[in-house]
Amino acid sequence: MLPSQPQQQQQQQYSLINQAAQLMQTPPPTSPWINPFFSPMMNQRVVCTQCKNVQDVFVPPTPLSSDPNTLDESFVFLSDFNSPTASIMDTFQSNSKSIERIEEINYMIDELLENGENLDSILHQQSLCGACLKDLFEELSKREDLLKRECDGFEKMLKEKKLPSKEALESNANKYKQEMDKLRNEEFEEREKILLFHTDRQCRLGRKAMNLQNEINAQQETEKGYWKAYFEYLDNMQNVSEDNRRIQLRSSKKKFNPAKLFSIHENPSRIMMINGLRMGTLRTEQVSWDEINAGWGLCALLITMIAQKLSKFKFSKYKITPKGSHTTVKELESGEKYDLFYSSIRNLNSFNQGMKSFLFCLKELISYAAKAIPSCMELSKNVHIDDDKISERSIIYSDQKENEWTGSLRMVMVSLKFLQKNVLT
């Protein structure tokens, strides 16, 4: 069994204290040539390492040895002895300073024990006066007594304590071994049970997951069937709706009367109106350009429908494109477009040219209708169109000629109403 740390410290203290005891019990040196009492040549004035007093001391030439025969070369002696037969203990009683020196001695002893050094090495490294040496040995003696009492108490405690015998120790070891084997067997059985439980649980979960997956697959197949039936239903509904739309279109074509799409009449101010939109303006009745532009879009749509009704007729010079309030007239040869609406003074020339082109198309339509339909002969005789004039009224717009422009628009609307009545019906 290895010694514990307190026991090692005790052994170090024992060794140190034994060295001090040997020093205290050693007789004075016997060699006259190295004895400080008989050899003053070895004395030196040095400072004590602990108390800092300056005295004549004998410095040993060699380190302190544990051999009693060589201890005469290792002591530090003071030079203030009056007699060579004076004892070392008498020397210790001189130059006692204070408690501070004792504290320094205690610190030196503690450092010596902590570093594990020998007493001879510490004495060789330091120069001590007699008082310091006395304090050193007294402290070492106290510690030796204290250490002896601790060792005696420790030995007494060991004797009082009953240690188990070897047979009892072996019996306890066997008992513990049997318990460990039993616990290992129980652990192995529990592990087997846990493994069996996990295996069974995984099997049950696997079967349950497989059943759930089969149900999901069946539901997905059913859902696919539902979606297929749904899309087929949508296709059938779309086909049915298309058939219904075709039937409705056929029935509407039979019942459709283009003549009823447009209503042309004169208001009390003698301004012609188409579907409630006034065509023209007077000083006494100002009409906005938005209303007039929308009316021009209806006139363009009406003349186009009349031209389409006459299947063999086509405009020779212009093409009218109805676009509501932004209707245009395109010249076929040059491809130039004219506005049939007024927005600002910047497009006034284009607007006038568009109305002039519309008047030219109306003249062509009246001439063809008079030849194709006998009832239209009366219209060609009563309405005369020459360049930008219709029945001697110019269709060119200006602020000074609003009444004349409104009168020309009146004649245009009368001609369109006559053609609607005789061609579309």
TrEMBL record:
The keyword Coiled coil applies. InterPro entries: Atg6/Beclin, Atg6/Beclin_C_sf, Atg6_BARA. Keywords: Coiled coil. The keyword Coiled coil applies. Residues 166-193 form a coiled coil. Residues 260-421 form the Atg6 BARA domain. One of its GO terms (biological process) is mitophagy. It comes from the Eukaryota. GO terms for cellular component: phagophore assembly site; phosphatidylinositol 3-kinase complex, class III, type I; phosphatidylinositol 3-kinase complex, class III, type II. One of its GO terms (molecular function) is phosphatidylinositol 3-kinase binding. Belongs to the beclin family. This is Atg6 BARA domain-containing protein. It comes from Naegleria lovaniensis.
